[in-house]
Amino acid sequence: MDAAVPITITRITIAMATPNKGHDARLESVYFWARAFVCLFGLGAVAWGAVVLPEFREQAPLNRITSELLMGRAYKLQTLSDAATQVAAIEQSWFCSPSDFHDEVVLRVAILQSAIAAGDKASVDHAYTPLYDLANTALACSPADPFVWWTLFWIDAAKNGLTPKNANYLRLSYALGPNEGWIGLWRVQLALALFERLPKDLADDATDEFIRLVNTQVLYQEAAAIFSRATPAVQGRLVEQLKTANPVPRQIFARVLYDKGFDVNIAGVDRPARPWQ
Predict the structure, then answer these.
(1) Are 252 and 217 in contact (CB under 8 A)?
(2) Cβ count near 10 (within 10 Å)
(3) For position 93, which CATH number holds?
(4) Tally of domains within the chain
(5) 93 lies in which domain range?
(6) What does pTM read for this prediction?
(7) What are the tens digits of pLDDT across the range 54-107?
(8) Which residue among 145, 177, 209 closes a domain?
(9) Distance (Å, whole) CA 94 – CA 65
């Protein structure tokens, strides 16, 4: 029995060492297609870079400008218009980039706002249609962008008045981005300007958003400026809603309002004595 063991092992060893032409052919085929896949993948990456990277380089100035716009920096209307001309290719691009579309919407909103502030009707008319078309294109690319929905509401309500259709644009903006402070600063000003005509759910969204701005404990001055531009009736509604704000920001915001000369009675806050009292 012991003598048979080496023979068996020898036979197995010989069988393993004997070339299998069919097996080798299959291995060569696998190696060929693997190398071909790697080469094609590499060529595809190079082609993608050749097409897309130039677009990224072109959008770098736009990203910088829009970031500064959202931080509150002001640009001259001509500077904004020149920037829009340089990046207009975004709208015709086959490449759906939500961030690029978002940035261009921010830019064109700033252009329209600057034209309105300057009282330049020709520039307002010239800026309106490109922004409206861009907003719709941007939403086709990224339908969950709350800022673009707010933009569509703003420009449609400005032209056609408040309608059930554009009220839904504002409703979508709140639903998709309820807690984004920088959007809220833009959104709440418009909502409060239309407050008395808003459906109840949107009026509640607007007052709730104002309280969220107060609760950031950062945007007191901005919230006070928004409060100062509201009608007395809307101010009364905001004062009533302030009872839902967190205690510390409510106290601080009340002090900001008192310092600006607003004699309001905010729940849980002692009004300071006036010199004439």
Answers:
(1) yes
(2) 10
(3) 1.25.40
(4) 2
(5) 76-177
(6) 0.71
(7) 443 445 566 777 666 766 677 777 777 777 776 665 556 556 888 888 888 988
(8) 177
(9) 23
| 163 & 194 share domain | no
| Interval 100-135: pLDDT, tens | 888 889 888 888 888 888 888 888 888 899 899 999
Helical residues (DSSP H) of 18-96, grouped into ranges: 21-70, 77-86, 89-92
Tokens of residue 121, six digits: 């009707």
Question: Is the domain of 80 the same as that of 168?
Answer: yes
Amino acid symbol at 256:
V
Tokens 């700033």 identify what position?
110
The pair phi, psi for residue 77, each rounded to 5°, is: -60, -40
pLDDT tens digits, 180-237: 888 899 899 999 999 999 999 999 999 999 999 999 999 999 999 999 999 999 999 9
For the chain, the C-alpha Rg in angstroms (whole number) is 31
| Cα–Cα distance for residue pair 116/110, rounded to 1 Å | 10
The separation between CA 268 and the C-alpha centre of its own chain, rounded to angstroms, equals 36
Can you tell me the distance from the alpha carbon of 207 to that of 188, in angstroms, rounded to the nearest whole number?
Answer: 8
